[in-house]
Design brief:
Largest sheet: 3 strands, antiparallel
Number of domains: 1
Order of helices and strands: HHEEE
Length: 123
Amino acid sequence: MLTIRRALEAKKAARENGEEAGFSLIELIIVVVILGILVAIAIPIIGALQHTALVNSAKAAAANGATQVAAQIAQNATVALPADNTEFTFAWKSAAPTTLDTICVVATSVTDGTVTGEGGTGC
C-alpha cells in the first residue's frame, strides 16, 4: 500500500512540475462517456423535432391547398384539388366542396404515408 501511495505522489509531483504533459487515459475515458451520454439524450429529441416539422409542413401544405380551392370557389371555377408534388399528395376529407365552409383538404406525406395534415374551414 505504501508503494502505491509513493508511486501516486511521484506521478502527481511530476505532473505539477511540468515533467509530464497531456491527459491520462482515465480522463479521456471520462470525456468519451460524457459525450456518449449527451448524444444518447440528443438523438431522441432531434428525432421528435424532425417528426414535428414533418407534421407541421403537412398542415401548411393542406392549408395552402385549401386556399387554392377557396380561390377557385370564389371565382366560380371548377373546383379541383391541388396537384400532387414530390412531398405531398392531396385528397378531400369527404366530398368536393361547393361552398367556402365545406373546404377540407388533406395532405399526406409521400416519404412517410402516415403523416397527414388538414386545412380548410370545413375540417
